[in-house]
Amino acid sequence: MQNPETINLLRETIFSLSSAPGQAGVAVFRLSGPASASCIKSLTGRSAPKPRYAALRKLRSEQGDPIDEALTLWFPAPASFTGEDCVEFHTHGSPAVVSGLSEALLSLGLRQAEPGEFTRRAVENGKMDLTEAEGLADLIDAQSAGQRVQALRQMGGGLRGLYEGWREGLLDALAQIEGEIDFPDEGDIPDSLSHGAYAPLGILASEMRTALQDMGRGAAIRSGLDIAIIGAPNAGKSTLINALTRREIAITSPEAGTTRDVVEAQMVIAGLPVTLSDTAGLRVSENAIEAEGVRRARKRAEEAEITIYVVRPGTTEFEGLIAEKLTQTDIIFYNISKGYGEIELTAVSNSLKGNLLDPNGESGLLARLEEIIREHYSVGQESGLTRARHGECVRRAQESILRAQTHLGIAPELAGDDLRAALQALSELAGETDIEAVFDRIFSRFCVGK
To answer: Can you give the pTM of this predicted structure?
Structure first.
């Protein structure tokens, strides 16, 4: 019979199936907590193997019934993923084995881990910071090479290196300000010492501004790009999305107004996942359904990172409007499959033509899309901000620095408070402060067993 102290100890130890559920060749169970070593003893009848060496052990239930023969790995604290004593059992992946081992662990008093609980413990035990944990989550969800590279860079501490540099600069500036405040009459403390912090603070604010401006690139890589295809009715938008994806995604018809809602398709271009959206033709309509489709088309174009304007040569109804709204990443595509022949392209650099009735009529457009994505949305050499949470923390830090600059010549005490607020914002970025609600939101999105 276990005493209450032992029961409480066991309840601190968690376990989970860390590999994908379902029938498989191998299933990986992960344990973390102070009872991990005793679980090896209970299940195998032997003490833990040599740390970080795999040992083949037979697993049995408390009643002595065989469960499986598994590779057993022992990771004593603090040299483990979570910073706690950890165990991994690599078993056969049949549902019967998974069920049998799960029941055996529950009978030993272990608790099933919540989503993201292993990674959360790693953060709480100082094995990684919150931005590195978010990078790990992004790596698990990565669908393209670009997402993988960015996630690995963040998981490896790239963003930590960025904000640690900012933190060092803030601490240096704060030391100068507090030196003047604390020792105003000391002969070896120069007058207006705090004023020397003005220029370094300006550099920090500028670096944060650049990071915020570049945030769109990192966020787009993480979540994927939205590409909206818009234009007049019967311009060839549906034909274009079918050509790009090499699938019959949208219905095509000589009748104008066939597409009345947004039709989406996913593909990978230049190493990044993109969502292509075929939209309703832009025109004034008395039909309520078509009018709603036009409204959605305009909204989708406003939200997209890239917009492709499909134009029928010889028409001018939308060209003026298009020219006013073009950005560096937008494209005008002249569909010459309607028999209009040769045309003069506009002066816009991202204007091109193609015959969508030709089997490779979209190849020029696809190549241009790849160029635009590589130029504007490729993974940079430096890690950047990738989440709204990152941007909010850095924005607050930057605003506090700017306030500190205005207070330097008036009230150094207020400037010091401003810099402490900036440091607090960076601490929240790292997950070092008590932000339980943020932890709950982030780690609840992890898969169970990570």
So the answer is: 0.72
